[in-house]
Amino acid sequence: GENVEQHPSTLSVQEGDSAVIKCTYSDSASNYFPWYKQELGKRPQLIIDIRSNVGEKKDQRIAVTLNKTAKHFSLHITETQPEDSAVYFCAASRASGTYKYIFGTGTRLKVLA
Amino acid sequence: NAGVTQTPKFQVLKTGQSMTLQCAQDMNHNSMYWYRQDPGMGLRLIYYSASEGTTDKGEVPNGYNVSRLNKREFSLRLESAAPSQTSVYFCASSPRVGPVNTGELFFGEGSRLTVL
Fold first, then answer.
1. Radius of gyration of chain A measured on its C-alpha atoms
2. Nearest-CA distance from B79 to chain A in Å?
3. Nearest-angstrom CA–CA distance, A72 and A70
4. What is the structure's pLDDT at B52?
5. Cβ separation of A6 and B105 shorter than 8 Å?
6. Helix-strand-coil percent breakdown of chain A, rounded to 5?
């Protein structure tokens, strides 16, 4: 079946350093890859997404890269700040009339001041 | 504009009891979803509804039923609750994919269910 693997499960970085979270997916028909951030006790919220027709997308301090051949995609956060501390989820989906997302298991990022 | 509203926020059940989680969205979205979140397991799709009148199974549908009552409302029912169903449940909605819509999921605040 469809599967999304996410690594690492926990990540600690010093404030100002970069953080990278990696995901691999199994369904070769997947063509939409969003990332969600969930702060403690809150709901997940979309922070960035990428479609399969591009290899990289950037929004200020966050970027996502996609390698369709290898079925890998990654989230990059630069100049990390304490407010970046949260759980991050990747997901993969076929971009059809309804997205049926399969999520990764999440990465708990801790930014140490 | 409330977005996605779930009720109840907290519930404690005994094994074998039944209950319904309610979800409503006011964003005129076509698609609605129910997820469960467990430590170390991420968000797993239980059921989803592409449009009013249709529902489909997700990754973990066993032990659950759903009803898409109208475009706004999508309920999740546990007929005979089991301890394995202790979890945080999230309802979500998304617009139909198109040139403008990205398919972003808008989540409710979550419902924490404990089955004893």
1. 14
2. 25
3. 5
4. 87
5. no
6. 5, 55, 40
pLDDT at A83: 96
Are B92 and B4 in contact, with CB atoms under 8 Å apart? Answer: yes
pLDDT 10s digits, B24-77: 999 999 899 999 999 888 899 999 998 888 999 998 999 999 999 899 999 999
More confident residue, B109 or A51: B109
List pLDDT tens digits, range A61-102: 999 999 999 999 999 999 999 999 999 999 998 866 666 788
Are the beta carbons of A43 and B90 separated by less than 8 Å? yes
Chain A contact present for B61, CB below 8 A: no
CA B34 distance to own-chain centroid? 2
pLDDT grade, residue A38 (50/70/90)?
very high
Tell whether B6 lies on the interface with A, counting CB pairs under 8 A. Answer: no
Distance CA A92, CA A50 (A): 10
Q: Cβ distance B91 to B74 under 8 Å? A: yes
Amino acid type, A77: I
Q: Does B38 touch chain A (CB under 8 A)?
A: no
> Whole-angstrom Cα distance, residue A98 to residue A24?
22
Asked if B50 lies within 8 A of A98 by C-beta distance, the reply is yes
pLDDT score at B99: 55
Q: What are the CA-CA distances from residue A22 to residues A13, A28, A71, A110 (Å)?
A: 16, 17, 11, 16
Residue A89: closest CA among A52, A58, A49, A55: A49
